[in-house]
Amino acid sequence: KQAPILVADALLATHGQPLPQPFVEAEWLAAEEQRLGDVQILSDEWRQRLETDEAFVAADARAVVRQALSIAKAMNHNYVGTEHLLLALVADANLPVAQLLQAVGVHQTNATAEFERIIGRGATPLSVEPAIVPRVVHVLHRAYMEASQLQQLPYQSTHILLAILLEGRGMANRILHILGFISVDLREKVGGAVRQ
Predict the structure, then answer these.
(1) Coil, helix or strand for 88?
(2) What pTM does this model have?
(3) Most CB contacts within 10 A, which of 61, 150, 168, 195?
(4) 52 contacts 96 by C-beta, under 8 angstroms
(5) What is the DSSP letter of 180?
(6) Burial of 14 (0-12, 13-18, 19+ CB in 10 A)
(7) DSSP string covering 28-60
(8) CB-CB contact of 97 with 158 (8 Å)
(9) What percentage of the chain has pLDDT greater than the value 70?
(10) What is the mean pLDDT of the chain?
């Protein structure tokens, strides 16, 4: 028998969605395991496509994912989360997505400072490649879907930012919120830029 899940309301309010009510633990766990399993299957396919399929992912989007991996390594993190993607999106000031973020006040310095304040650095250097977490796989899939719907394939770094904002959860959205950005407003600006 599994232990009950006990999560403080304050934690849920700041870090996630409330649990469904009435809460049936077994059903919720089964649904979460299925969702994570689906994402894990997708992640293997996505990693291969990210490395090889130029018709699927534009060069700037591939560069953002590589930069996110480099940031995770430099921070001694054994995973790549949406927060690493966010830092990668603002890292290259020549990218249109970085210019868009800078125009609304998200810069490498303030995003990195908030990232380090919340998450910090790992204590020991990594001996393995950081793993791309399921939420990032979902974000990349959503970027692909957005670009596909807009007939803009291969998807670009701007589609990744739009997907992060549409996801609405994850550490990247939390960092943006703490920096004072309302995701709905930012999503509208990014969506408008993508559709031009």
Answers:
(1) helix
(2) 0.75
(3) 61
(4) no
(5) T
(6) exposed
(7) HHHHHHHHHHHHHHHHHHHHHHHHH-TTTB-HH
(8) yes
(9) 69
(10) 79
